[in-house]
Amino acid sequence: MQQVQIREQEAGQRLDKFLKKFLAQAPSSFLYRMLRKKNIVLNGTKAEGKEKLQTGDTVTFFLSQETMEKFQKPPADERALQRRYPYIPLEILYESTDFLVINKPAGMLSQKAAATDLSANEYIIGYLLHSGAVKADELVTFCPSVVNRLDRNTSGALAAGKTLKGLQEMSRCLKERQLGKYYRCLVSGAVTQAQTLCAWLEKDAAGNQVTITDKPSDAATGAKAEGNKGESRLIRTAIRPLEHYHSFTLLEVQLLTGRSHQIRAHLAHLGHPIVGDPKYGNAAVNKRFRKRCGIRFQLLHSCRMELLDGTVIEAPLPEAFRRAIREVQL
Questions:
Q1: How far apart are alpha carbons 282 and 274 in whole angstroms?
Q2: What pTM value is reported for the model?
Q3: Beta pairing class for 300-306 and 92-95
Q4: For residue 68, which phi and psi values (nearest 5 degrees)?
Q5: Quick one: which of 100, 184, 189, 326 is 20 to 30 A from 23 by CA?
Q6: What would the pLDDT profile of 123-138 be if each residue is shown by its tens digit?
Q7: What is the Cα–Cα distance from 138 to 241, expressed in whole angstroms?
Q8: CB neighbours (10 Å) of residue 130?
Q9: Is 186 exposed, middle or buried (0-12, 13-18, 19+ CB in 10 A)?
Q10: Which residues are CB-contacts of 90 (< 8 A; sequence separation ≥ 6)?
Q11: CA-CA distance, 93 to 310, in Å (whole number)?
Q12: Contact 93, 315 (CB under 8 A)
């Protein structure tokens, strides 16, 4: 017999989901059979698997040690864990029991694009292991994860759930648009007034690029688009000019919908491409800033998050962004 007590970071998930992580090598049919036969029980009573776990619940396994070892993944050794989740200094903007927010630098992936990648997700886990907020054995049944995503070369505030409760709550706030997300960007041209803009976005998955139109395409009505293009989706973007620098404008942008490349493509569609953007930007402008300021990525920065409880989390502009502003002030 083995008993496992549910910890705070694991609470909120279904029992069967927990079991599939705890006995990761066991087939689902085996787990449900053990539940039916009461070889696995929750708080001393028979369970179906759909029960939501709470902190302090006890899961009891009436299984042999040999069976438990057969279906559990062997624990990673310290070196393997450090390779998988390396520790690097991160700029922590906010941290609570359930979630944290970092100031992600440009060039860092939010999440893995390939199995061999290291991303903000791995670095955050490395930080939590290093600080003692998470123990290695706890990663078996819950792994902290980023909540929102930023393009690789977009910097700024990136949130992650430290516990399942934090991950679920932040994800819900994002889905229900209850989390204010604001960006700073330097764009070509003069933007003279604040406005909320609507358009239609269509993504070409093969080329990892989007197209913005003022009206929906046929795909929006359910017809299949040619090639790898998908449906057109309505986007809403609020912009507010902060400063004018000759032929450039520093903008604050609020995402009212959250689509891939929305800010970059929408501003380019309006004739105000973001400085440094290699995909949607102006090649001549990008060349100037690359030569004079060393800018090789879009000057788009997630500068602020506003939580429902009134908490405001701000991410300072990176030095490269400030250097570009000094350039246009001349």
A1: 8
A2: 0.85
A3: unpaired
A4: -60, -45
A5: 100
A6: 999 999 999 999 888 8
A7: 46
A8: 16
A9: buried
A10: 102, 103, 123, 124, 127
A11: 16
A12: yes
